[in-house]
């Protein structure tokens, strides 16, 4: 009996391993449907595809090229992103479920509700069975008209992903009022987000101009909040030279557009604006559930909130100052991150010829050389709305360690496939 139980547990573990490495990919699915190519293109441009792929249960209401053309004609990418989020339902709906709604109508949560930008329940969608067998979709705003109606079923992966075609987008007044990077005063935005000290540093050092120059191409900024600069054990930043301070501030920015959902998909090391060809001043990402942290090699800093998301620019706040080991000692420099040479910034003011500064001492306390700064204060609770389903499980720290050791992002998938094959052979031997 014990041997039989062990075999069953082995088979269950193999099945779970295979399930863990398999997930839907909305852009790959829509590649097979040219009539939705424009919708699919904007999913990639806005990175909404990463938000969809991170969900274990989701329904995408897709628009044909004609309907999508009418939607995007006079909108910014930030506004298009919100429109796509409102068309993404965080529940599974297929034809049968649409026509058998309890009381003929219900409210459902969308990706837009999870952004925190939705006022009240404006991030919800009303699904109602209309006369003549039609199913309509409308904003939760009182008096909203059912301009979008169900057209046909496109693709289902019960009960994880459903793709349904609708006739028109779902909108409401205020949906297209997203702040844009072009019209935003970056200093004022950071100060309002509680990052006054960081704002002062980037202005006084001249790094603000570097950020602004990068915003047109792609920029992801990690702004430490004011509490981060008061954290116990933080090195004395005033002891840095001007060149070292510039490098530190560049270390807080990526030359790519990476909203939170996209950060979850990144494996290995990420180049920052301070990165060199030798792989110095890189970062890596650690995820746990819905939490995302940036790992410097000395400490981790949690991504707390997003204060601006205007493709190709996104600004996150983080709970602690990102301290590169190249400046503050501790962990050795990371190996060069694999990737095309075009990802490397064309120029970096980081002082290549100068020696790294010794680890500064915390004000008022003696500190042993090489000791890592203390962790940031406890992170605030996640701000995911109560009605939002839980995100799909994110990557484990063990996978990150294995990747750093072996340098192969496909290791987890290969192991799972091997286990699944062995499990299948073992099961067959007992049939």
From TrEMBL:
Belongs to the fasciclin-like AGP family. Residues 329-413 are annotated as: Disordered. Residues 182-322 form the FAS1 domain. Keywords: Cell membrane, Glycoprotein, GPI-anchor, Lipoprotein, Membrane, Proteoglycan, Repeat, Signal. It is found in: Cell membrane. GO terms for cellular component: plasma membrane; side of membrane. It comes from Oryza nivara (Indian wild rice). Gene3D superfamilies: FAS1 domain (2.30.180.10). InterPro entries: FAS1_dom_sf, FAS1_domain, Plant_FLA. Residues 363-372 have a biased composition (Basic residues). Residues 340-362, 384-396 have a biased composition (Low complexity). Its main location: membrane. It is a lipid-anchor; GPI-anchor. Pfam families: Fasciclin (PF02469). This is FAS1 domain-containing protein. May be a cell surface adhesion protein. The keyword Metal-binding does not apply. Residues 1-23 form the signal peptide.
């Amino acid at each position: 009996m014990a041997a039989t139980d062990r075999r069953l547990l082995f088979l269950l573990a193999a099945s779970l391993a295979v399930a863990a490495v398999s997930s839907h990919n909305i852009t790959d699915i829509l590649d097979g449907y040219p009539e939705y190519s424009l919708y699919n293109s904007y999913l990639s441009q806005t990175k909404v595809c990463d938000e969809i792929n991170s969900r274990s249960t989701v329904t995408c209401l897709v628009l044909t090229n004609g309907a999508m053309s009418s939607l995007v004609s006079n909108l910014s990418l930030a506004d298009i992103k919100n429109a796509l989020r409102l068309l993404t339902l965080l529940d599974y709906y297929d034809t049968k479920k649409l026509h058998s709604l309890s009381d003929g109508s219900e409210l459902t949560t969308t990706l837009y509700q999870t952004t925190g930008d939705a006022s009240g329940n404006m991030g919800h969608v009303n699904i109602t069975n209309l006369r003549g067998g039609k199913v309509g979709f409308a904003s939760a705003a009182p008096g909203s008209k059912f301009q979008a109606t169900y057209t046909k079923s496109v693709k289902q992966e019960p009960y994880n992903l459903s793709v349904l075609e609708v006739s028109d987008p779902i909108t409401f007044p205020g949906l297209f009022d997203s702040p844009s990077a072009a019209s935003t005063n970056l200093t004022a935005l950071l100060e309002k987000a509680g990052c006054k000290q960081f704002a002062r540093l980037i202005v006084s050092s001249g790094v603000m101009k570097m950020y602004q120059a990068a915003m047109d191409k792609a920029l992801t900024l990690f702004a430490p909040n004011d509490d981060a600069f008061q954290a116990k054990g933080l090195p004395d930043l005033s002891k840095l030279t001007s060149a070292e301070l510039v490098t530190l501030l560049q270390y807080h920015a990526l030359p790519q557009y990476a909203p939170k959902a996209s950060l979850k998909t990144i494996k290995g090391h990420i180049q920052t604006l301070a990165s060199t060809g030798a792989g110095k001043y890189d970062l890596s990402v650690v995820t746990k559930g819905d939490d995302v942290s940036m790992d410097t090699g000395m400490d981790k800093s949690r991504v707390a909130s997003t204060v601006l998301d205007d493709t190709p620019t996104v600004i996150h706040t983080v709970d602690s100052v990102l301290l590169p080991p190249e400046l503050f000692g501790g962990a050795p420099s990371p190996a060069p991150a694999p990737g095309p040479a075009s990802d490397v910034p064309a120029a970096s003011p980081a002082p290549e010829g100068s020696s790294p500064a010794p680890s500064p001492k915390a004000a008022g306390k003696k500190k042993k050389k090489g000791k890592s700064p203390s962790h940031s204060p406890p992170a605030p609770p996640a701000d995911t709305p109560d009605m939002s389903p839980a995100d799909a499980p994110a990557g484990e720290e063990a996978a990150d360690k294995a990747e750093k050791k072996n340098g192969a992002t496909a290791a987890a998938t290969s192991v799972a496939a091997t286990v699944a094959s062995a499990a299948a052979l073992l099961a067959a031997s007992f049939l």
